Amino acid sequence: MQDLLKQRLRTLPEKPGVYKYFDENGVIIYVGKARNLKKRVNSYFTKQHDNRKTEVLVRKIAHIDFTVVENEWDALLLENSLIKEFQPRYNINLKDDKSYPYIRVTNEPFPKIYAMRNPVRDGSLYFGPYASPKVMHTVLDLARKLYPTRNCNLQMTPEKIAQGKFSICLEYQIGNCLGPCEGKQSEDDYNNSIQQIKLLLRGNLSEIKKHLRTEMQQAAESLRFEAAQVFKEKLDALENYRHKSTVVTSLTGNVAVFSVCSTEKYAFVNVLYVAEGIIVRTHNLEVRKKLDENDTDIMHQAIAEMHILYADEIPDEWILPFPPGQDENPVINWSVPKAGDRKKILDLSVKNAMLFRQEKLNQYEKLNPEVRIDRLMELMRKDLRLQEQPRHMECFDNSNFQGSYPVSACVVFRDGKPAKSEYRHFNVRTVEGPNDFATMQEVIERRYRRLLEENKALPQLIIIDGGKGQLSAAVEVLKKMGVYGSVAVIGIAKRLEELYYPEDTLPLYLDKKSETLKVIQQMRDEAHRFGITHHRNRRSKGLVKSNLTDIPGIGPETARMLLKTFKSAAKVGVAGLGELSAVIGEKKASLVHRHFHPETHANG
User: Does 454 share its domain with 556?
Assistant: First the structure.
């Protein structure tokens, strides 16, 4: 499999949608739907296929594209419309023969209206597809009840009607047809009914709802409760008829939906083409910025390119996320929706643009890790309001136990990653008691005095684990050393993860999910871990020394042997002479036992 195709498979979203397979010539060879795009598409390349045609299909896939939708119904409808639009070669062979129903208005004198599943290109008008046959039949029944039309197969023309070639049937007798075959309904009146039905099928339901409510009320007033219930059920079904979907909407005509999602260097554009309420095409564009173009500039360029690509299908309306600006193109009819179906389908386009952006950025970063580093460093520079990218960062944390064994840790990150070989810990020399401020001042001065003496580069950012007090203490030392101002310094407080800047009383709060905050938290946690580990080691050595190595003739190695066996100095003190001798020999055992039991040896 090609490397680019592997990258594409790894970056597919776990969302419902439709996927399209292209061959090496850029021709769509298969369209499919999925509840989870990532799992479904990957299954083609990871499973063993029993069907040889499926194996052939997989071998011919050179490129994969997808469109995210809100739910599985939307995926079903979009898949169906795309198959009808592009007629991919392998859909005929590999998919089941299930299709979704349409309502057909035939192209003939006195048109007929009925449901069908496989539209043919004969000039007839089709409405759909409908996700639910029940909904489709509800609408069809309503249309026939409100505007009765014929369902016979007679080849009716005005001449044959005038010659009396036809006679009315049972459908006329029961009220399902108004008898145009015998001239009881004029062709103009019949065609007017057809036009009203077309409006109904396009979603103009207000008059229909009004009619149903009137019929229901009249039936109830005349005590025909069963008939009233039938009208109520039809009204309820009609309320649910307009499937609140971004694939089948109330939009009429040809509409293009535009959205753009930008980064520092790139812009990612998504365009959805909607025909009579159904998405029939999606188009993604990637634009590399050259002159720091804004989103409005990108939008103008993208719309112009779409006009060139689809010159024969100029949209009747453009749905945009923001106005085109002062230099509005008078050729296009545009709108910026705030609510309703237009806003809903615009949100879907925005979602697709964001996914397209994330997919491309993931590809760039996997192919070239430097891209991610550059992006992260620039993001941190902006988030933290720095003058330069923090390629070299250092973080400090203090540890002590009730003022004893004070230590401090310094961790170093380069390009956003730990440089563990450069970690340093400090045994505090000049501070007595629990004084975090004085401890911070000592280690800051020792660290950067040494870097200056060795002519080593200072970091671009210093992070102090603590609030404003520790930060102020560090700044005071940096000022005395003459490096304050050339190195940025911030403090992070644990409680709310707020960031403090010198001489600024208000903290900075970053989004909890931001990459910048995650890097700072990682540095803080590393400094804490590194400092605690050193502090425990030092305290352990100190406790050994104070309890056992104070015994004349007993050194650190003997003390460690005793602690390893007896686990604590207290248990060493109550051990018998024989037990001690078995570990360290009779001579040293006698010294230890004498230390803890002087009265016994005095009597002996």
Answer: no
Name which of 416, 509, 504, 497 is nearest 461 in CA terms. Answer: 416
Provide the CATH number for the domain around residue 594. 1.10.150.20
Looking at the fold, whether 76 and 156 belong to one and the same domain comes out as no
Strand 254-262 relative to strand 317-319: parallel, antiparallel, unpaired?
Answer: parallel
| Residue 202: predicted pLDDT | 65
Phi, psi angles (nearest 5°) of residue 160: -65, -35
- For residue 134, which amino acid is it? K
User: Residue written as tokens 């490129």?
Assistant: 63
DSSP collapsed to 3 states, 383-431: HCCCCCCCCEEEEEEEEEECCEEEEEEEEEEECCEECHHHCEEEECCCC
Tokens 């449901």 appear where? 115
* Whether residue 338 is found in the same domain as residue 270: yes
The total of other beta-carbon atoms located within 10 Å of residue 379's CB is: 18
Residue type, 387: Q
How is residue 58 annotated by DSSP? H
Whether 352 contacts 282, CB under 8 Å: yes
Are the C-beta atoms of 496 and 509 separated by less than 8 Å?
yes
Residues 389 and 510 in one domain: yes
| Average pLDDT rounded to a whole number, residues 184-189 | 89
Q: Tell me, what amino acid is at 39?
A: K
**pTM of the predicted structure, to 2 decimals:** 0.46
Of 132-136, 387-391, 409-413, the poorest mean pLDDT is in 132-136
Shared domain check, 509 and 399:
yes
- Domain range for 308 is 254-365
User: Which of the pair, 303 or 1, is modelled with greater confidence?
Assistant: 303
Sign of CA dihedral 304, 309, 314, 318: negative
Q: How many domains does the chain contain in total?
A: 5
Spatial neighbors of 244 by CB under 8 A, at least 6 apart, are: none
